[in-house]
Amino acid sequence: KKKFKQFTNNGILKKDILASYYIYQKKTQLNTFTGIIGASSVEDYLNNKIKKHEQTLTKREKMFCDYLETTNFNADPVLLSHRPNKDIKEILEKYTSTRSEYEFTTTNKSLHKLWIVNNPNDIQVITNAFHKIENIYIADGHHRCASSALLSKNINSELSSYFMSYLIEENQLNILNFNRLVKHLNGLTAKQLLKKIKNNYNVVHKKESIYSPNLKDEISMYLDGKWYSLIASKTKYSSPSESLDPSVLSKNILNPILKIVDERTDKNISFLEGTTPLSTLKEKVDSGEYSVAFILKPIPMDLIKKVADNNETMPPKSTYVEPKLRSGLTIYPIA
User: Contact, 197 vs 203, CB < 8 A?
Assistant: First the structure.
């Protein structure tokens, strides 16, 4: 908060004179993401118009709420996704075809561009377009949403009734997987673990040096120097969340066999995002740092939406969603 005040006093940070949206584009070596930075309603989050698919931890909610109450600003936009919209697309194309107001490249070779939208007519077009979109989905930032909702109860002001967000078409999202690494096998040998897994999975030993799953209901496992394809025997589930590969893995292997009950707190399990090469996971098992690795497929957006629409939640670390946004590109004061 002190640094923020110092930056504003020295003119390093300047508040926009006119009420504005920002169009923000991030270009990496593989993808280009273009969307709108604006303030989203806490009420819409509480009324489930902004839908969630992850459980939040009360401790973290309170920690983030305390942070917001102390600093009085949002510097990290929540990543929200929405279905394609013609009017929004036209606005994005109109602005991105012109010179950006801000443009810079970061050390990770990402190009960042920002356009200011302060024309009243364009602002109205954007606002009306979002008004017509029935549901918006949290792609990344569940704790930030929850803490903003908590804050709005503590501070009853118009500014704190909103949180900064980056709204992007769902077909632009890059959804990757999170893989699981387990340190010890709960006293079992590799052979014993394999035998128990065969009760719920069709297990096939693969000769490839690296094996990534691609079939329906398939995950892969690296154990004792060998790769295996695991396809779940049961394929009928009572809800969308139950059918997810992370849920099936937890129910069939992690919980009953390896006694990992709470993946959020158990120190026997680690998660590595899908951007990490599988050769790295293999090395971690070969070195003895971990005993087994489970490789999962990315969860498609339509399934994430089904879980959210059903008011269900996914297991922790089910998705790794890009774009990942840099902190402090835009700042929204909440008091």
Answer: yes
* Contact (Cβ atoms closer than 8 angstroms) between residue 88 and residue 129: yes
Within 8 A by CB and 6+ apart from 329, the residues are 24, 37, 112, 114
DSSP of 35-59: EEEEEEEHHHHHTTSEE--B---HH
Whole-number mean pLDDT of the chain?
94
Give whole-number Cα distances, 309 to 11, 186, 194, in Å.
45, 37, 36
Query: What span, in angstroms and rounded, lies between the C-alpha atoms of 107 and 63?
Result: 30
Bridge partner list, 103: 113
Q: Which residues contact 116 (CB under 8 A, 6 or more apart)?
A: 16, 20, 22, 101
d(CA 203, CA 201): 6
The first and second tokens of residue 270, run together, are: 């680690």
pTM for this entry:
0.90
Residues 213-249: pLDDT tens digits?
999 899 999 999 999 999 998 778 889 999 999 999 9
